[in-house]
Every structure is written in structure tokens, then in C-alpha cells.
Amino acid sequence: MQNSIHQCSSAEAGLPVCPARDSILKYRRRRGHNTRATAQDLRRDLLFSLLEAGAKTAQRTLNDSAAGLSFGLSRAQRLFQPPPPGFPPGPQGDSAVSLISAPLDFLERTKQDYGTIVGLLLGGERVVLVADPAAAKQVLIDDALVFGKEGTAFFPGSSLTGNGLLVSDGEIHKRQRRLSNPAFRKAAVETYAAAMVSATQNTLKNRWQSGGVRDVYADFNELTLEITLDALFGIHASESGDGLSSSTETTEIVDAVAMAFEFFTRRAGGIPIPESIPTWDNLQFASAVTRLDRVVYRLIDERRQELAANGGYAEGTERKDLLNSLLVSVDDDGQGMSNEALRSELMTLLVAGQETSGILLGWATALLAFNPEVQDKAVAEVEAVLKGHRPEAADTRLLPYIEAVVLESLRLYSPAYMVGRCAQQDTSLGGWPLQAGTTILVSPYLLHRDPAVWGPDSTAFRPERWQQWQEAAKGGGFMALLSGLGPNGAYLPFGGGPRNCIGTYFAMQEAILVIATVLQLYKLKPAHQASFPASKPLITLRPEEVRLQILLR
């Protein structure tokens, strides 16, 4: 007997979860169809219901958003209009296809042909590409209020991250940053060091013990998710070393995050369709966000109850994670974050922190494997400093060469290879007049490889270049090297100015401790006949995969 809608689950029918199922049922009722239907009927009707819903959404947009329609038309018109007077020179015509198809080649070629401040037309949007240190400083630091996030093209917000630090602007951003800062201070972040090392040791024991060839980038992605969930919510890896615990809560988070990352990857490779349009991709993504919301809001409610029972103080609870730190943080008026604001910041930290750390570790270990002389120096430092003991938070200051490896990896392969801003008013940049609403793309990728700044070996992996700056910092550590736009005014792997990455110390500590733990136990070599990993620039600068031969020391 064929399964009916009452006899088979959405998954068994090959359907998304409840939102899509409800949409189909409504569609069938409107058409007078029997709601008891086969899976084949449901899949067919899903297509028609999506088309119908999409048409209605488009109609609502036309009826209710004249401003949005006007914006779309004006963008189309700009395809055929000359640039505004004084707009920086650049390629003729629209360069969107060239940028999407080969981003890094396009950036390098554009700089070579037109200089360090270039005017572009991208999908009908007037954009200025910046690869000039002084102009980058103006955008990110000196005139940070003039160049905000609001209105930035190609960096759309998402229902996943909400109005978190990554996309918020103005007073909302200032307040959220103020409330979040205590949780990311050095002393607070150092309390997570032991968990970072334990998770790394579990990963190595479970996945690397037998050696062989592995895609270490995939392993590090799972590891950084474990570390992030532990730091955010206190969700620990299982004692067996098999990764995260298999609770329903953890499984829901991991599955939903994986689906969200797949969605963003597909979205970055083509024309982004607004999340409000009920495509198959968007419905699945909406389902993932709903599941994450359910878990995160439940965790927030539970913690608020725990804190209330403890008189509002985190010190008396067993929880020592970022959620608790954010819950007890209050502004001058004694007000903390709302549940919605907390949810947005937690989602932002989960998405942004986990992925970029996995990317950094993937590139860093690839560079070590393909530069054995650098790896040998790093191992010698680890052995001399640690003498076989587990790395601890205090050791990050005693491993300057490992620190230099991380800084140099970020220079060559910064995960955030483009940083977007928007002119909030008419202004000028590097002597070029800009109209309000112009998007600015600052390129760390180009700045970090500029021979005029870094010397003739600007594309070489040479951690030793950081030694002079480390000595000049006089014990200030990596945070001194990352202040402003770096020691030479052209280094911004974590951004710069008031919107620099709030998790900088967390990310640097994590990378140093993980790499030190790996080098204590394993030697890294390129897989047989393998070439250096290819870049996969989407929203972030990922490696395709990092296949390395893992050898026990």
C-alpha cells in the first residue's frame, strides 16, 4: 500500500520539514485535492506550491514595497549609465561575472591594471575596491562612522545571524559590543584554554592515531565546532573521544549548522535569492534556523532561571561559558541583552567563529607540511618550551615562532579576504569623491601580498618576517601586533577599528594551542604527489581540501 501523508514522515517523502509540508497541504486543499496523497503526489505538488508561493511573494513585493522596486530598477539602469563624476577608474562594463568566476585572479588583475583604488560596476552596483593602506585606514578606523555596514552591497544579513555584531550598525552595534566585550577579555578567554587542548587531543586520538592520509581541513572544521559549542554553551565532547556528545540537543545544533553552512556555500556561488522566497533551498535553511532557534532559546531560558535562582550572579553557578558571561553583562543603566539580542550574538559567534578558525588551521597546517624547514623550527620551539606537558594558556606567550606561523598564515590566506563598508554620506576616499550609498570593498588579500609593503618576497611563507615586530612589541604579544592595521599599517586579518573582530584573542589562542598540540605528536607531510591546496574563495577564503600524510613522532 502506498504511503499517505498521514503514514509517512516528511523525510521519508523526500520533503523538507513542517513549513513545506504545511504549504503543500494548503495548496492541495485550495485545489480540491485529497490530503491523503502519495509521496510522489506530494513532491509534485511541492513544486507547484513553491511556484505559487513565489509568485505571491513577488506580487506582495510589487504591491507593498515600492521602494524596493525602485531600487531594483535604479540598479538595472546603472548598467547603462556612465559612472558619477570623479569616480575612480576601473574596468569597462559590469565585472560581476569575472569576480564570481575567479575572485582572486580578478582582484590581482584589477589592481595590476588600475592601481590600489579602483572603481567597479558589480551587478549594477557602483563599488570601490581598496588595496591602499592609507585608504583602508580611512575606511576602517579614521572615518569609521562615515563608512558603516548599513547599505553594504553583497554582504546581506541573514535570519540566522539576525542583527548581531557582524551586521548591526550605529547605536545597536555600540551597545551590543559594549555588553559583549567582558566575555572576550584576555582573562575570560584564557579559561577556555584547557577545553581547547582537550578537544584537540580527543580529535587526534580518535581520528589521527592510525596515521595515513587525511583531509585535515575537514577534521579541523569538526574540531573548531566542538570548541565553539563548548565555549558558547558548555556542550562538551564525549568522554570516549568520538567528538561531540550524542545528545538530541547537540545533534540538532550540529545538523542545523551543517545545513546552514551548505546553504551559504551554495548562495555564495551564484545569485543570492532572498530568503523570503520559498525555494527548496530557502525552506530547508528556514527549517535549520527554526531548529537552532528552538535549542538556543531553550538554553537561554534555562540559564536565566539558573541565574535567577542564584541571585543573578554567574560566579555561584557551575556554568563558565560565553552564554553565562553575556547573560550577566549589563549596561550603565543596569539593562542586559534581550533574549533576541542574545540569540543573534550567539548565532553570529557560532557561525563566524567556527568556520574562520577551521579555515585558519587548515591553511596553517598545509603551509607547515609544504615548508618542512619551518615545521622543524616550530617543533623545536614546542619541545623546548613545553617539554612534553600539555599546552596551557600561559604558554601562548612563550611560543613566539608558533605565533609567527599563525600570523603569517593569516597574512597569506586571511579567511576574510574582502571587508565591506558603505558610505553613509557624500565623502571622499584617497582624493576620489564618493556619493552616499557607494559600497567599499577593502581587500586584505591584496594588502597582505603587496610587495611595496611586504618586500619582494611578499607571496612567500616566511614566519621570520614577524620577529622584528615581535621584539618591538616588548612582550605585548599578538594583540599588540594586531592593533590598528598591524605593525606596518597593512595587516587586517581581523578587520580594524571599532568593528574589528571581537573574538581575536579567542581565535589566536585557539590556533596557537591547537598547532602546538598537533606538533607535539605528529609530523605533517604532503600526501603522495599532492600539490598545495587550491583556494576556494566564496564568502571566506577556504582551501578546497588539505590532504596531508600524518606521521606519529
From TrEMBL:
<dbReference type="InterPro" id="IPR036396">
    <property type="entry name" value="Cyt_P450_sf"/>
</dbReference>
<dbReference type="Pfam" id="PF00067">
    <property type="entry name" value="p450"/>
</dbReference>
<protein>
    <recommendedName>
        <fullName>Cytochrome P450</fullName>
    </recommendedName>
</protein>
<keyword id="KW-0560">Oxidoreductase</keyword>
<dbReference type="InterPro" id="IPR001128">
    <property type="entry name" value="Cyt_P450"/>
</dbReference>
<feature type="binding site" description="axial binding residue">
    <location>
        <position position="501"/>
    </location>
    <ligand>
        <name>heme</name>
    </ligand>
</feature>
<dbReference type="GO" id="GO:0020037">
    <property type="term" value="F:heme binding"/>
</dbReference>
<dbReference type="InterPro" id="IPR050121">
    <property type="entry name" value="Cytochrome_P450_monoxygenase"/>
</dbReference>
<comment type="similarity">
    <text>Belongs to the cytochrome P450 family.</text>
</comment>
<keyword id="KW-0503">Monooxygenase</keyword>
<dbReference type="InterPro" id="IPR002403">
    <property type="entry name" value="Cyt_P450_E_grp-IV"/>
</dbReference>
<keyword id="KW-0349">Heme</keyword>
<keyword id="KW-0408">Iron</keyword>
<keyword id="KW-0479">Metal-binding</keyword>
<dbReference type="GO" id="GO:0005506">
    <property type="term" value="F:iron ion binding"/>
</dbReference>
<dbReference type="GO" id="GO:0004497">
    <property type="term" value="F:monooxygenase activity"/>
</dbReference>
<dbReference type="InterPro" id="IPR017972">
    <property type="entry name" value="Cyt_P450_CS"/>
</dbReference>
<dbReference type="GO" id="GO:0016705">
    <property type="term" value="F:oxidoreductase activity, acting on paired donors, with incorporation or reduction of molecular oxygen"/>
</dbReference>
